Every structure is written in C-alpha cells, then in structure tokens.
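Field notebook, page 367. I keep forgetting to write these up properly, so this time I am using the form the group agreed on. The chain and the ligand, pyridoxal-5'-phosphate, are recorded exactly as supplied. Prediction of the bound pose follows.
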Amino acid sequence: MLPFFAEQFGNPMAVYRQGQRAFAVLANARRTMANGLNCAASELVFTSGGSEADNLALRGVLTASRALGKQHLITSNIEHKAILATAQQLQAEFGCTLTVLPASADGQISPSQLADAIRPDTALVSLAWGNNEIGSINPIRELAQVCHAHGVWFHSDAVQAASHLPIDLQDLGVDLLSLAAHKFYGPKGVGLLYVREGVPLLPSQTGGAQENNLRAGTHNLPLIVGMAKAFQILQEERTHWASHFQTLRDACIADLLGRLGTEQVVLTGHPIERLPNHASFALRGVDANELLMHLDLQGIAASSGSACNTGNPEPSAVLLALGYAREWAMGALRITVGRQTTLAEIHSAVQTIAQLVETQTLAGNSV
Ligand SMILES: *Cc1c(COP(=O)(O)O)cnc(C)c1O
C-alpha cells in the first residue's frame, strides 16, 4: 500500500502516464478480487467498506425497481445495522414496504419461510451469510434459489462469512454481495459490492464515472491495493486458518459452558452452523459493558453485541429479537479468535470470565 500513498500519486482516471500507471494497479486489484470471487471484474464496485456496500445494495436496487412498481424489501430481524437501519429508512422516508423476517432461535432464516414472504411487488431480499453477533450461517445458496424462482434479486451481507468460508459467486448464485477488507486482515475503510451483470442499480453517490458509473469519487488506491493483497493471502490461507480458529472456538465454548452452569450461561447462535472463529454467549444477570471493561483490564479484548453499539448500556437487540429475556440479553458476550490467538490464551480468558461472573464482581448483577 505504501507507494500509493506518496510516490505513485496518480489518479487512476487521469490521462497522463502517472494516471495510466495507477489505472493499471487498480485494474490489477480488481482482477485479483474477481478471480478470487469467481465473477467478472466489471461486476465489482469498490466502496468505503461494508456499510456503504450494504447501503448501495438496498438503496440502489429499491430505487431502480421503482419504475417497475416493485417497492417491497425483505430482510431479517438480526441483520447488521447497516442493513436494518437502511431498510427502516427506506420504509419511513422513501415509500418502500418492508418485511422483517423473524430468525429462528438458532439465528437462521429458512428457504420456506422466505418463499412465504415473497410478494409480486418484492424487489429485493437481503439476508446475511454469517451473523456478526451470534455467528449463525444462513443457507445462502438455497435462499438465492428461492428468490430466483420468484424473479426477485438477492443480496447477502458476506462481511463476516467471506473471511472464513470459500466464496464462489457462480456456485452461490447471489446477485449482490457485500465485503469489507478489515474483516479479513485488510485495511479499514475499504470494501466492495458485487453486482451481477443485469441487476438494476441506481448509484447513491453521483458525480464522476468511476466504478461503472455506480460510485462516483476518486479511488482510494492504497486501500484498494491493500484489500486485494489481503484477499489474495486469505485465498491461500483460509482453509488453514479456519481449522485453527475452529479448534480454539470449540475449546472456548466447551470450557465456558463447562465452568458455568446453564443457569448462568448459554451459547447463542447455531451450535454447528456458525462462523469458525466465533463464540457467543448470553450471561444471565451480567451487564456486558461492565464485563468487557473488567476483561480489558486483564488484557482481554472481547465484544458484546456489535462493535457499532459499544458504550450503549442496552440489551442486545439481536438477542431480544431471538426471544431472550432482558436479564440474558444484557449479558451478550462475543469472543472471536484470530490468527495470533493461542489455546492457552483461550483457557486463561475463559477462566477470567468465569471468575468475574461467579464472584459477582460485576455490579450489573442487579439488572
Ligand atoms: C463489520 C460489518 C459490517 C460493516 O462493515 P464496515 O466496513 O465496518 O462498514 C456490515 N455487516 C457485517 C455483517 C459486519 O460484520
């Protein structure tokens, strides 16, 4: 990335040779991503990250479908806020109709449930591949098939899943798919939206002709180069890391459930069909924010709900949506493992969590 911050400063859209060189670098990064995803390079729109890709998918398809009289959007009640807040705004301010499907207790949407919700005026269905808070994985290929049987476009937020599951867009059959580089060890502030050839999409950000006229603005070349490099490394190492993660994740789940009884802790999300790096729990009567602060003092970096809600002393909206009582939903804990994480660290972290919960160090026991 470094040369493109300073020495090679050309704008890829400029005519002079520095620009042409930058354009070649941009095209190369796009080819790397397209090869890895198994799509055409022209089907990729570089964005500032996952939130922008999600926004562009929902706003872009819904506004483009207006001319066809299709204004109905379907999503689920446990989506990332980039989806849910956008869907709610489209409903409140832009005349769209919205169906929010209730996920199962394990955090999944079934193909038959989706089929029942599709209407003649449905334009788009958006369901995440892997859930960021509870790790559950949706049956994306089957959900895409249901959509296509009804002539409806299908978007999937794959920001979590892409880091861990192999992606072959032709095999998956989705029409739009969001990625963010920082979820696979790339830089923050860059991502992409895959838009299958033929999907109607109006740009949200208008201006220049960048990205096939779908996203105006001078390219952030250093970050795009960084994303492509991180993705190339991910392609080579994904399987290796996924099995490393899964060993640690399973140890984390078994250890914490073994130390605390079912009165105090439950695993949230799907027990098997979940992201390989992702363990999530609900702790009864615990204020998750307080727990996280105590863990940070011990050098343990954990999350509760979404990182986007940090500091918010509210129960997890995802756990409430799944039917958990408030005394459980206040204690959402999410432990994700990374490439540097060791088994010893997992056991020590779990021991610390169990001690904090058992000794009632947490004043939040009053919730
Ligand atoms: C992180 C995340 C996002 C948002 O991506 P940003 O790059 O932070 O905007 C969207 N969806 C899911 C599922 C995520 O995990």
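OBSERVATIONS:
- The CA atoms of residues 78 and 318 lie 5 Å apart.
- The mean pLDDT is 95.
FOLLOW-UP: compare against the apo run.
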